[in-house]
Amino acid sequence: MLVIGLERNVRMPQNPYMKPLPAEQPTHTSGWGILLWLARHQKAALFTTFIVRVVWLSTIALLPVVFGVAIDTVIVDGEGLLWWVLGLIGLTLLVAILTVAREVAGNHCGMIASIRATRLVNAHVAHVGGAINRDGRDGEIVSAANSDAEQLQFSFGGDVQSFGSALITPVVAVLLLSYDVLVGTVVIIAVVVHIIVLSRLSKPLENRISGYRKRLGYVADDTVDIVTGIRPLRAIGGEDRIRERFGRRSRDLRNEGYRIAVPDALLEMLTVAMPAFLGIGVLALAISKAVTGDISEGDVVAIFGLSSFLIMPMENIAALFRNIPQALASAKHLGAFLETTPEYTLSGVNSPFRPGQWSDADTGLSLTPGALTVIVASNPRRMDEAANRLTGQSDGDARIDDVPITDIAARELRENVVQLRSDHILFTDTLRANLDPHGRHDDEVLNSALAAATAHDAVDSLGGLDGILRKNGSNVSGGQRARLRLARSLVHNPEFLLAVEPTSALDAYTEQAVVEAVTRYRERATTVVVSTSPMWLDAADRVVFLSDSGAAVAGSVDELASAYPEFADAIARVGV
């Protein structure tokens, strides 16, 4: 389809290897709202990841305890060494197996969050349609679908496991209390201080990361502008200006990154230093207790092993305080993007589509069914607004007979109504996939549409229907791109086709051939062309003039030129 702006109730082709998005969309687009929505729809994966992490950590924590008991037992009894060694080997193998399970569960959980976030962005782009282009947010789409989704993948894959660490840490502290009250108390106090300090540092980090994400979107926007428009910019002398803006925003992004570095570095330092100092202190206390005979040699080994083990969950807790602000910043950015509203809303009445007399109350346009109507507009913006209303892409009082277009079922509207514009893109894919994305038509239909658009030279240059078009058809000429867009709309052959300047990029000879071929191809179908081209005006069944204000009027070219100087000026510019 050429029309961008699909409603969510339109059934899209479903990938058999992917589950559909939940019918319930996020109702709260705050950072926490997005995170909770993602979590709610993958509860099983989150629970599995959490449990595997807890079991894995518990098994590791059990190792030094078993070591300590083994040492005391072998020293006292003088036997059983072989069985203890075999037991420890078995426990170590269990840790290895659980390590694999932890990685698999974490990656699975993270990938679910990332893919769901990316698909949410894609679904929202389809839902709001032209509003994305209206706001110039191409770079923001790239950022939301890549950087933000990647951060959410990391957070859901890793931070969920860190919650397991937060659970196991107090358990180990209580276990240390059972060996010695003083040692256990020191560990508990150290863990509490560790968490308080980290929480204090996480808030400024969250604020700075939010600013960084916002500036990253600006730079991504500039990158898209440069990639897609460098040639026109050079032609009009705007290259220096865009270079200066890109440089300024890049410097702002770099400086924002420097601001993140300070609290992030402090968190990283505390991640390493505090657990290490805790281990040293606990070991010193344990040795002093062993010297006085308060605890056994096996208890020293167990205490040292448990305190060393605590380094890992405390690092995970530190990472949690570092990563949650980043996840919140990404979720906020994603939520802000999801707040973009469409330019129109279908009423949900879901009336069937039936051909009839098309009309637009705002401009007084009345379009005869089954005819070729050419509209000359002195105000392109007013014409664009009318075109969007007539094709159901903006709100307004446009009707087919007495049925408001916004009352027609979305799927039927999209099947029967197409608006063709010169800025509609061609995708990086085969020519066949560009012309017929759903694979509904055979080669005969495709070749017939290409012939009507006189686009066979473009097919030959690509090496056939299976030749690859680069991004937006960059490997074909501007005129070939225009004819391929036209061919795509003709393949679909809708009941109502509204084309805005479809042949403006063509030379006169080619344009004449296209007009004649399209007129034959669309015979008895409702076709509206917005153009001042003499070829289209000569071929028209009806000519309509839409002025800056007032109702649209129909008549012959001579009648309209005599009555309306604006019409005469518009067609004079192209030599009618």
Outline the structure in words.
This protein has 576 residues and is an alpha/beta fold. The protein has helices spanning 31-40, 43-77, 81-128, 130-135, 138-179, 181-235, 239-291, 297-338, 380-390, 410-416, 431-435, 443-452, 456-462, 478-492, 508-521, 534-539, 557-563, 565-572, and strands at 358-360, 365-367, 372-377, 398-400, 403-404, 417-420, 429-430, 468-469, 496-500, 526-530, 542-546, 553-555. The two termini are 33 Å apart. The model is unreliable at 1-18 (pLDDT under 50).
Which short descriptors sum up this protein?
four-stranded antiparallel beta sheet, 576 residues, alpha/beta, elongated
Number of helices: 18
State the end-to-end CA separation: 33 Å
Q: Output mean pLDDT.
A: 80
Please provide the ordered H/E string of secondary-structure elements. Answer: HHHHHHHHEEEHEEHEEHHHEHEHEHEEHH
The global form is elongated
Q: Uncertain spans, ≥5 residues at pLDDT below 50?
A: 1-18
- Report the biggest beta sheet as strand number plus sense, adding barrel if it closes: 6 strands, mixed
> Could you estimate the helical fraction of the residues in percent?
55-70%
Strand content: 5-15%
Question: Gyration radius, to the nearest Å?
Answer: 34 Å
* Order of neighbouring strands in the sheet with most strands: 6-9-10-3-11-12
- Going by helix content, strand content and strand pairing, the class is alpha/beta
Number of strands: 12
